[in-house]
């Protein structure tokens, strides 16, 4: 029989948006069903010596990739520690490990963080239990398309050395809650203020200006914040905020969960999985406002947990289907495509309410932080924010939680923010030309670039900016034209909806039109290229335009031209910061 240490499994994650954490907690639940004592934690939230000293059956690492192949924020300190040259080359000799990465194969840095982690663990002597797993958002089942078979292989391999002491706990048995949540008497609690997460600074909103025409369909804002303390950042950095839910949305969620009558009752909250900034005495209304991602789209793990609380056979069967591997196509059609929220989903399963309080933290994940490129170079913090709203088959329009919250803030209101390194950096050589490609709100970071480069008299600077209409959404037009008049900037605009013909013109067309100029800047002056904006098709189309320019004006084959751009990327001369 295994000793307690041998029957232990450590699951460590690095997660930027919550998906890797969700996968790690799923692994933890499956390990519990196989009678392992499980520890699930972010890599930066455990003692780093744990990896070297644990006698666990295995250490499972789950991580996503952010930026240009970078590790997530809650993995970075751990990763830097692993890279120390003072660590003995055999420090992990004999330790059994498994690594699963979550990513998107449409990005050039697909699963870089997991690939590098896997390679480093092996360098230090660790023994992989199974080959590295690569979850891909492009798979029709999402990351589960790779995670399901990878997990099956992992459990099979573990059972070779650690046979099950008892049968696997059936799926019908609900796992224990990850946090302790209970009513604290009959007293109500009011007036609990906004959270104060560590490492965040307080700031006051001083300006909230719409920078698109009033009759334009898209509401884009320039927001200016003054921080309470001096903060330094450099162009390319981001401001990170944790949004809050609107009061009407909180009320709707509490009603759907069957918690309206308990909304303002005082709760006692404890547990290692609860974020340190969550008060240990709070209310469901406070959690719904500041913590729970009630406007998010439920993942498979939500249905795996919710099925245990269905009180009718019809609802239980439907929830079990959504939780199964075979039911992922149906879940995609039900939840993912229409972007159905937690509140709307709970309304469809009324016989799960009221949800048990003790499982609140297992059912609804926390609101993820949002990052925005800073549009200023010093002093006040300027952000450029598009208010997200769109229609699906659902009755109500979908609204971005963070952008909606920011748009309705009035000057004088307070927020908290932290600052994070972005993926783009200005040219290290102040004389090197900067070629910036920023359609839409992709221009945000380049405003910071230009403010700094103009202040330091650094040029030349070239900006390819794209929007729908010269008179509707030409962001920062007066500032850009002032820089052009001063000789600091050359501006090339693509107004996709202003053409008389049906052919739409985008930034990639302007790049090809300026091919001779672009090639001379790349070849003779070693210009740096920066691309920022929506990740749907723009990055690939812009890269293809640069490849075409190199091929046409550099007299190279298509493959040699593509390699030229890849070499620029390796040298840090071609940088992207794109998002969905």
Task: Characterise this structure.
The chain is α/β, with parallel strands linked by helices. 32% of the residues lie in helices and 21% in strands. The protein is built from 19 helices and 22 strands. The strands form five sheets. Strands 1, 2, 3, 4, 5 and 6 form a six-stranded parallel sheet that branches. Strands 13-10-17-8-9-14 form a six-stranded antiparallel sheet, with helices on one face. Strands 20-19-18-21-22 form a five-stranded parallel sheet, with helices on both faces. The two termini are 49 Å apart.
Please give a handful of descriptors for the protein shown.
6-stranded antiparallel beta sheet, single chain, 580 residues, 6-stranded parallel beta sheet, 22 strands
Summarize, please.
The protein is of the alpha/beta class and 580 residues long. Strand 19 (461-467), helix 15 and strand 20 (490-495) form a beta-alpha-beta unit. The longest helix has 18 residues, at 144-161.
Uncertain runs? none
Number of strands: 22
What class would the helix/strand composition place it in? alpha/beta
Radius of gyration: 26 Å
Give the topology.
Blueprint: E1 8-14, H1 19-33, E2 37-42, H2 50-53, E3 58-64, H3 76-82, E4 96-103, H4 112-123, E5 127-128, E6 133-136, H5 144-161, E7 180-188, E8 201-210, E9 220-227, E10 238-241, H6 247-256, E11 265-270, E12 281-282, H7 284-290, H8 300-306, H9 313-323, H10 328-336, H11 342-348, H12 360-363, E13 370-373, E14 381-386, E15 389-390, E16 398-399, H13 401-407, E17 414-420, E18 434-437, H14 444-455, E19 461-467, H15 477-485, E20 490-495, H16 507-513, H17 515-525, E21 528-534, H18 538-553, H19 558-570, E22 574-579
Parallel strand pairs: 1-2, 1-3, 3-4, 4-5, 4-6, 18-19, 18-21, 19-20, 21-22
Antiparallel strand pairs: 7-11, 8-9, 8-17, 9-14, 10-13, 10-17, 11-12, 15-16
Helix pairs in contact: 6-7, 6-11, 8-9, 16-18, 17-18, 18-19
């Amino acid at each position: 029989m295994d000793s307690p240490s041998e029957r232990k499994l450590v699951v460590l994650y690095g997660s930027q948006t919550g998906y890797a954490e969700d996968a790690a907690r799923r692994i933890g639940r499956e390990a519990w069903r196989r009678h392992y004592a499980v520890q699930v934690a972010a890599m930066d939230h455990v003692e780093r010596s744990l990896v070297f000293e644990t006698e666990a059956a295995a250490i499972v690492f789950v991580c996503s990739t952010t930026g240009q192949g970078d590790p997530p924020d809650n993995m970075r300190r751990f990763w830097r520690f692993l890279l120390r040259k003072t660590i003995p080359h055999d420090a992990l000799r004999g330790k059994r490990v498994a690594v699963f990465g979550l990513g998107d194969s449409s990005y050039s840095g697909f699963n870089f963080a997991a690939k590098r982690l896997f390679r480093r663990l092996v360098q230090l002597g660790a023994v992989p239990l199974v080959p590295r797993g690569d979850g891909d958002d492009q798979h029709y089942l999402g990351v589960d398309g790779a995670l399901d078979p990878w997990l099956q292989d992992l459990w099979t391999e573990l059972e070779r050395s650690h046979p099950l002491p008892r049968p696997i706990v059936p799926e019908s048995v609900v796992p224990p809650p990850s946090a302790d949540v209970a009513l604290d008497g009959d007293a109500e609690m009011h007036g609990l203020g906004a959270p104060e997460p560590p490492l965040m600074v307080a700031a006051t909103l001083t300006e909230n200006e719409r920078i698109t025409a009033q009759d334009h369909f898209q509401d884009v804002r320039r927001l200016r914040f003054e921080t309470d303390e001096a903060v330094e950042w450099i162009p390319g950095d981001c401001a990170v905020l944790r949004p809050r839910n609107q009061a009407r949305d909180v009320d709707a969620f509490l009603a759907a969960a069957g918690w309206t009558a308990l909304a303002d009752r005082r709760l006692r909250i404890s547990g290692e999985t609860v974020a340190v900034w969550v008060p240990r005495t709070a209310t469901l209304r406070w959690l719904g406002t500041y913590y729970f991602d009630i406007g998010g789209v439920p993942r498979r793990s939500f249905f795996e947990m919710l099925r245990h609380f269905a009180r009718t056979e019809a609802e239980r069967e439907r929830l079990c289907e959504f939780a199964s591997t075979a039911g992922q196509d149906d879940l995609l059609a039900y939840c993912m495509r229409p972007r159905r929220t937690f509140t709307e989903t709970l309304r469809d399963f009324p016989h799960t309410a009221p949800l048990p309080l003790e499982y609140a933290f297992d059912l609804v994940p926390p609101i993820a932080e949002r990052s925005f490129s800073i549009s200023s170079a010093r002093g006040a913090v300027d952000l450029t924010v598009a208010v997200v709203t769109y229609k699906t088959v659902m009755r109500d329009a979908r609204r971005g939680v963070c952008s909606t919250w920011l748009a309705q803030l009035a000057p004088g209101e307070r927020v908290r923010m932290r600052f994070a390194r972005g993926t783009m950096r200005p040219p290290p050589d102040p004389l090197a030309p900067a070629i910036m490609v920023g359609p839409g709100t992709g221009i945000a970071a380049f405003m910071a670039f230009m403010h700094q480069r103009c202040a330091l008299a650094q040029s030349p600077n070239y900006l390819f900016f794209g929007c729908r209409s010269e008179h509707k959404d030409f962001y920062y037009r007066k500032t850009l034209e002032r820089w052009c008049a001063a000789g600091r900037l050359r501006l090339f605009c693509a107004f996709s909806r202003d053409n008389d013909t049906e052919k739409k013109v985008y930034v990639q067309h302007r790049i090809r039109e300026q091919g001779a100029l672009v090639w001379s800047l790349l070849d003779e002056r070693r210009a740096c290229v920066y691309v920022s904006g929506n990740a749907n098709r723009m990055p690939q189309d812009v890269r293809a335009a640069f490849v075409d320019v190199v091929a046409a004006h550099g007299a190279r084959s298509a493959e040699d031209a593509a390699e030229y751009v890849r070499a620029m990327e390796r040298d840090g001369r071609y940088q992207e910061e794109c998002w969905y």
